[in-house]
């Protein structure tokens, strides 16, 4: 049992590491939400959230970019604590977005689904047509 090793079954290079992120936390409820989200990831051993510094530290066998993408699903403004790590993420995002823009062409029209998404929501309709229970 003492000679057993943890082997991750994926082709990405991952190793035990600390991942430090700057995450905007607005309340202690946000702190719990962040901790719960990250603690359910596979391979993560501990999650430390510092509300005063707006800092989240994750320790475990994980890919730091996967941790950041999971964190961005809850907090869009999340970024790495070290500025040089953020530069790598921005370069990758810029490289991925360039081919997508070239495929659309100059006469691009949004799909019907996108146009319908801009219509009024149920909440907006309720504000417009309020019910009166007195007849």
Give your account of this protein's structure.
It is built from five helices and four strands; from the N terminus they run βαββαβααα. A hairpin with a 4-residue loop joins strand 2 and strand 3. Helix 1 crosses helix 2. The N and C termini lie far apart (77 Å). The mean pLDDT is 77. It has a domain at 15-91: Alpha-Beta Plaits. The protein has a four-stranded antiparallel sheet. The protein is extended and about 75 Å long. By secondary structure, the chain is an alpha+beta fold. The longest helix is centred in the last third of the chain and has 22 residues, at 83-104.
Brief overview:
The protein is of the alpha+beta class. The protein is 43% helix and 19% strand. The protein has a 4-stranded antiparallel sheet.
> Architecture of the domain at 15-91, CATH level 2?
2-Layer Sandwich
**What is the mean predicted local confidence, pLDDT?**
77
CATH class of the domain at 15-91: Alpha Beta
Task: Describe the largest sheet.
Answer: 4 strands, antiparallel
End-to-end span in angstroms? 77 Å
Give the SSE string.
EHEEHEHHH
Overall radius of gyration: 22 Å
What is the 3D shape? extended
Structural class estimated from helices and strands: alpha+beta
The CATH topology of the domain at 15-91: Alpha-Beta Plaits
Strand content: 15-25%
Total helices: the number is 5
Low-confidence stretches: none
Q: Total strand count, please?
A: 4
User: Helix content range of the residues, please?
Assistant: 40-55%
Read across the widest sheet, the strand sequence of neighbours is: 2-3-1-4
